[in-house]
Automatic annotation (TrEMBL):
Biased composition (Basic and acidic residues): 17-40, 47-64
Residue segments, region Disordered: 1-64
Superkingdom in the source lineage: Bacteria
Name of the protein: CsbD family protein
Length: 64
């Protein structure tokens, strides 16, 4: 996984958590839902990057 992608995904998850908390504090269900969406999207991207890494590792180990 590229360091930039990993950092970008973590940032998106962090922004999502902040939006979700702000939505809860301000009792704004739309902001809370948007934060939840951002958090989940960042997590899903992270899973995709880990899957790519696993495939690369399998290919690399098979060439020996």
């Amino acid at each position: 996984m590229g360091l930039f992608d990993k950092l970008k995904n973590r940032t998106q998850r962090g922004k999502g958590r902040a939006k979700e908390a702000a939505g809860r504090e301000s009792r704004d269900p739309y902001l809370e839902a948007e934060g939840r969406k951002d958090r989940m999207a960042g997590g899903a991207k992270q899973v995709g990057e880990k899957a790519k890494d696993a495939v690369r590792e399998v290919r690399r180990s098979g060439r020996r």
